[in-house]
Fold this sequence. Notes:
Blueprint: H1 2-5, H2 11-25, E1 30-37, E2 40-48, H3 51-55, E3 59-60, H4 64-72, E4 76-79, E5 99-107, E6 110-119, H5 127-158, H6 168-185, E7 189-197, H7 199-206, H8 208-224, E8 231-236, E9 239-245, H9 249-271, E10 277-285, H10 292-309, E11 326-331, E12 339-344, E13 350-354, E14 364-371, E15 374-386, E16 390-395, H11 400-433
Antiparallel strand pairs: 1-2, 1-6, 2-3, 4-5, 5-6, 7-9, 7-10, 8-9, 11-12, 11-14, 12-13, 13-16, 14-15, 15-16
Helix pairs in contact: 2-5, 7-8, 8-9
Amino acid sequence: xxxxxxxxxxxxxxxxxxxxxxxxxxxxxxxxxxxxxxxxxxxxxxxxxxxxxxxxxxxxxxxxxxxxxxxxxxxxxxxxxxxxxxxxxxxxxxxxxxxxxxxxxxxxxxxxxxxxxxxxxxxxxxxxxxxxxxxxxxxxxxxxxxxxxxxxxxxxxxxxxxxxxxxxxxxxxxxxxxxxxxxxxxxxxxxxxxxxxxxxxxxxxxxxxxxxxxxxxxxxxxxxxxxxxxxxxxxxxxxxxxxxxxxxxxxxxxxxxxxxxxxxxxxxxxxxxxxxxxxxxxxxxxxxxxxxxxxxxxxxxxxxxxxxxxxxxxxxxxxxxxxxxxxxxxxxxxxxxxxxxxxxxxxxxxxxxxxxxxxxxxxxxxxxxxxxxxxxxxxxxxxxxxxxxxxxxxxxxxxxxxxxxxxxxxxxxxxxxxxxxxxxxxxxxxxxxx
Length: 434
């Protein structure tokens, strides 16, 4: 049996071989091999009586017979099958099974699952049956670990790790298959290539973690709003592709508009402002090309044409930022004493504050700072915290007077920067003359 278990890297084949070989040694009426996924045991292989009941189970670690075995790493001999969570909680379900033998499967990384054998006769399993099952359990666990690693490696080669969507490699393979089917069935195929406008601004202002959140949310929304047989993939970066059969020009236009609205809503949800838009280009087989490369190239070209025709405000900062460094007082609701920080990247919309204080995202703060004879106090909301370094803030609605004072400070900083730049230029020129 040990040689058979190591002969295949497929999880399904591994479990099937195990069940067949084991039955000759330990008779059973049903078998369920549960594999651990997070904090649940999921039946990866089920065979025998009541297999539909066992196949529908999701057993939390620590609950029921198999959950207890997984948590405590101890076997159970002649346990009650009906205590599995969800097994007999429906009055329409009925089981003829009365005895269970369950053994933990421990791999190099801990428990990987549980193998459970069931029989109709009460107290059917013996200590010899338990000994046999324990003898093969370690080899079984290692075989399952190897099979899971193989599946993970296969998936990572074709799946984008961040969004869970198919990646560029999968996209090209799928598009080749779809085009072959279209040629065979004489049908049309629409390919839509999209690229976000303003995504770099999100990374710059809110950080890459929030940028990743934007990508994940949009990927999920795009997948959820597409038809079951549409193919949605991430080409790379902030570029996404949809492959759709049988779309009319009107339907593809509606789909493009839906995609733009999705990305607009994601930008508002993550950043709290209208910061993100989407450029979409589409091509159709066979009118725009007969192979995958030409179809994608044409859709990509049209997407960039649309991007260039859009206003460029999405790819610029909403407000110009001053480079000066100012000392500022930082106060928060409920705190008696103000803290001190260094204010940088100041603009009418927000700033960055260098401080060792913990300023949690979405918390409210009040900044007080001055330049020469102009001082101002502004309310802000933390949009990003860099632990031990500082936090990015956006200013909330202020009075006209406060906004005027802030603009005056920005003008003074800009004037100082211009003066310093002119002085540097004069020094450089004097150096060349010497």
